[in-house]
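Researcher: Next sequence.
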Amino acid sequence: MPVVFADFDFEASLAFVCEINYDATNSVIGLKFDDLNHPPGGTQYVAWLANTAENNFINLGVVSSDRFLAADYFRTLDTSVSLEQFDRIILSAELDGGSPDGPSDIILDGVIDPATFAVQTELLSSNVRPGLEQYALAVQHSGLSADSLAQGNLAEARRHAEHVVNILEGEAGPNFGDLDNDGQAQNPGNGVGVFGYLLGARDLLTDAEPINPSSPIFFVQNGIDSSIANSNVYADEAVNLALKMFAVDTADEGLNIVDDLQASVAAGINGVDLDQNNFIDPLAGEGGLQTVETLAIEWIEGSYFPNHLLNPNGDQIGRVRLATVNDAPLSGIALDLYPVPAVADPSTGYFVYLISNEGEQVANLGQVVPDNFRIDETIPAGDIFIAKFDEVVIAIEPLGDGAGPAEPTTVVYSASFGVEQQTSLFKVVQSDDGETPLLASTVFESDLANQHVDFMIAALEAGDLPLARRHAEHVNNILVGEADERFGDVDGNGTVENPSESGVGAMVFHNQMEAELLNYAAEPESLNARSRFYGTTVIPTTLFNQASQYEEVLGLIGKLLSTDTVGEAGPFASQGSNEMVSILTGKDFDGNGVVDAKEGEGGIVDFEFLLHLLTDRSFNAVDQQ
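Model: Next structure:
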């Protein structure tokens, strides 16, 4: 059954993510997919724009994903194509090399609500953008008025002040007309006026389908409403200032007015940072018409393609997971939160803290600053051992010297990790006691075994069967370790050889890693959907496949040792080499032409990325009341 993006429930639908980018010129469409399944063998994913009422489809091209099932896709649309003409975006599986007229096997079906989309696009195309164009003219003529005053030409300054009023008010405005009494009502604008476009924008917003106040999209729509009102106030101030130009008697008196006039017109476009927090927020008094354009695009992008940051109740605002920083696995925190408004008090900021044992230990990771209402940042933990902490919080704290207080006081967002679970996870990838982590040990020993497989093949190519058998023994002993009954003088040359310094065995490290990872996911109800899927399905399958491959290599080594000639030994060595490489890099078990890490086909080197997904947690807002 197709997944309808508009009704997408991340928690119930495992880990699919889709985002759409609506370019300001409506000429580029961008899709971002995360955790897709690979298409069946012989097929490929194709994206479509669809007008289902007219059975009209536009092929957007092939969408290819990497082995971790992420795909970023951008397509420049033909100038004759506008998204307003379509009501769906579809992803389908099509035969390789085919050229269908429409989608065949629909994988994902994204519904664009025509009524809402019509309002959103009309807001942009018919009101905001032409309003910005008229504002730009008003800026130009307020500047010309200032230039005229600087030259002592009051009459010319008044003429441009008339232009400003008429551009802003439009022909329906009460002050429109021949304000400088030169016998002509001059208007370089188009007659609608900035006020006309602002009124049209407000009417469209009023007529739009109501949005649940708990939804992050409500934040966007409410910001549009506030910014339209702000722009109207600043335009009204500009009109009043321009009218004062006709009551002065000298150019010098006009100079006392024109700077404020220019500032008011500019504020109507750009907004004003009233609270001096270095952001133009979509709040009362701050956002301008440019803010409206930015938010209107976000409204389009977010209203019918909600992504993984949101849950059906609207109370989940983001996610956090452990991240690799400077090649050190799980040595940082990756944040992705939206919407996150700028702090109201410019003397404060958002700070990230790690907390353990209900505040017994606290680590301040520093300040994070929202960019366009979003925090998307990876923060290194430095020498802090993250495994000892079970909670990540974001708090609003005084900036002080910029470092923030040692402990949080006003927590606004929080996410929980389990310390016991993390202890298991960190045994796999990181250590604070000087021991080599299990994953690194498994990779090292497996790579060492693979090197001796290569030495074995080289010996066979040189016709030296005894040397090949000796390296076969090395491979066997590196894999099983000294405590295994299969360890020993398997080539029968009277000497037990093991190039591994640890002597533990790659398979032993792999088994220990498996035990820790299964322990991490032993309580799946503590994990969100994505972590649960990887912890209980993908990673166990991957571990099982790799364990089977180790046994396959040992079986091939045994067969090679039972041969009497180089020719007989060759095929077993070749197969053993293939299996060892696959243990490290993955294997296409289902034969669809792709090593699919999501299907458990990944290699040991893929675990670092898989463990990032395993650590996904939901960030929730903390009630301050």
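Model: The longest strand covers residues 316-325. The mean pLDDT is 84.
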